[in-house]
Specification:
The protein has 235 residues and is of the alpha/beta class. 37% of the residues lie in helices and 26% in strands. The chain is built from ten helices and ten strands. α3 packs parallel to α6. The protein binds adenosine-5'-triphosphate. Keywords: Amino-acid transport, ATP-binding, Nucleotide-binding, Transport.
């Protein structure tokens, strides 16, 4: 289980996270929803030690991660696919996938995993030697997720996977996320698209200006008056 306990994160004078606690159980998909600037990305960065917390802890199966380097955290089975994809545009699809495995030494395992992720993302298989910068937005998002999978994460964190994508591609990506989960990876997903995220997830948390204000099963959140009014456009 991944356990985030009361983390506080500051950017200079800005208190971005005011004591956030949440959990992702093994096998779950958990959605983190909230308005722009509420602190969603900061939660993911704090877990991955991309930003240092001022207090609070993160545990993976009761092992303390807080204080470890990001590389160490990745090698322990956590991986963040950041917002905006950040793929290496001048490298080929294949080279990008290899970069996702940069902390691994098992050549044979890496080759096997490339085959596996290409089965999940057939569009990438057709474009393996193409420069990543020539892919469409949706394909670049797929590559970012596929590259993340190359570190063999137990817990995968996706920051706004549907951002800027046409609805048909959003559906395709969400379907693949479900498959990734069914193959044994637990997921924490940050999304503006709250309805879609909650429909995919088992549970969810709402974050408002650095605090978790509501948590529950996806069904509870989808039916909550407050969540519906604030995040689901009244649907
Ligand atoms: P968005 O969906 O817009 O990315 P978010 O919910 O992910 O929003 P964060 O990016 O976590 O929110 O930002 C939380 C708060 O921290 C915001 O007020 C933001 O302006 C501030 N913030 C984020 N990154 C930095 C930074 N590097 N330096 C200073 N302030 C920051």
């Amino acid at each position: 289980m991944l356990k985030v306990n009361n983390i506080v994160l500051r950017y200079g004078g800005i208190l971005a996270l005011k004591g956030v606690s949440l959990e992702v159980n093994k096998g779950e998909i958990v959605a983190l929803i909230g308005a722009n600037g509420a602190g969603k990305t900061s939660v993911l960065k704090a877990i991955m030690a991309v930003e240092r917390v001022s207090s609070g802890e993160v545990y993976l199966d009761n092992v303390l991660l807080t204080g470890l380097s990001t590389d160490r955290i990745v090698s322990m089975g956590l991986c963040l696919v950041p917002e905006g994809r950040r793929i290496f545009t001048r490298m080929s699809v294949h080279e990008n996938l290899l970069m996702g495995a940069f902390l691994r030494k098992d050549k044979k395992g890496i080759q096997d995993d490339i085959e596996k992720v290409l089965t999940l993302f057939p569009r990438l298989k057709e474009r393996l030697n193409q420069k990543a910068g020539t892919l469409s937005g949706g394909e670049q998002q797929m590559l970012a997720i596929a590259r993340g999978m190359m570190s063999r994460p137990k817990y995968l964190f996706l920051d706004e996977p549907s951002l800027g994508l046409a609805p048909v591609l959003v559906d395709e990506i969400f379907k693949i996320i479900k498959e990734i989960n069914e193959s044994g990876t637990s997921l924490l997903i940050v999304e503006q698209n709250a309805v879609k995220a909650l429909k995919l997830a088992d549970r969810g948390y709402v974050i408002e200006t650095g605090n978790i204000t509501i948590s529950g099963t996806s069904e509870e959140l989808l039916n909550s008056e407050h969540v519906r009014a604030a995040y689901l456009g009244g649907h």
